[in-house]
Amino acid sequence: MPFMPRSENRRSSCSVYPTMWRTCSLFCAWTLLFLTEVCAQSQRRPIFTCGGNITGESGVIGSQGYPGVYPPNTKCVWRITVPEGRVVVLSFRFIDLENDNLCRYDYVDVYSGHVSGQRLGRFCGTFKPGALVSTGNKMLLQMVSDANTAGSGFLAVFSAAHPHERGDQYCGGRLDKPSGTFKTPNWPEKDYPAGVTCSWHIVAPKNQIIEVKFEKFDVERDNYCRYDHVSIFNGAEINDAKRIGKYCGDSPPAPVFSEGNQLLIQFLSDLSLTADGFIGHYKFRPKKFPTTTIPPTTTTQPVTTRPILITGTVITAVIRGGSMYATISIINVYKEGSLAIQQAGKTMSTKIIILCKKCPFIRRGLNYIFMGQVDEEGRGKIAPHHFVMAFKTKNQKGLNVLKNKQC
To answer: Residue 311 sits in a domain of what CATH number?
Structure first.
């Protein structure tokens, strides 16, 4: 082994240590940056779970896993509590749930209070309601999903406000005097704002009913009142089984009479077109007052079981209780009846129920001709005496002939 002077030995070891030190420093700096970025990301993007109790002046609520796809077959409940003497104001920033004109499958319910509270609304699809305001310092959100179509869920923010802190975006409330007036925000100076939800809960003594009349009425027109509209319900909550009517357009609805001593009036405007709005009046009546003038479900399109003939592509198809429930992307409509049609941009879709087990089995992604009737909820109904068959371009000419003929 050759002899190495001590000075050279020291010099060699000194040349090695700086290299090790630089490598270690770089590794530590990279690790620190990585951990800092991870922490920053966790702070920027909260993790949303299924339900919970939330207390404070303000906060954010999101569906489980938002902004990812929410899981199927879940029921999540969030209970919000703000300080005593304040009310909860909730605003949806984003919503994407399975779309259905009655929100029967995936939906979010919002209630004023935690137990047996008044339902302020049920929401699905991509429609963002306006600000929802509780009557007290508690609010409850409940999201339900079924086994099928899912989306990104929802994101909402809440804050505490003083009970009478009403601006353009806040309206509605409890009405319990013998007579009174309700109107859209900004009436009559200018159009109502976009993105508004107003709920008026009218309560009469138990031996009386309620009469409602609209003096002026101008709400964005649509054949099915899918966008801006007024809905009136018997009772104290939004329940489609108890809905008296759904109204839009520029013709005042006929006078409405409640069945009992409570009535709920809800006005919704989406984020696009607006109009003048409305002013309505209510008064209490003796219970023996006749109630035979209740109007149809909509002022613009009465619900009847008229024939339909459409062509479309199957988006979803699920069997429930021996019947098939399908969502159809519409190719063409030849006979519309009173079919409820949803529209998102240029895409139109509708719901079809095939009642007979012997009808042709439909498959997702394929095109069909559907001929049947419309049920009381605006869905297409295909019974054993109706038909479904595969649609091909060569069928187009024959269908155009049927368009103007009686079924």
So the answer is: 2.40.50.120
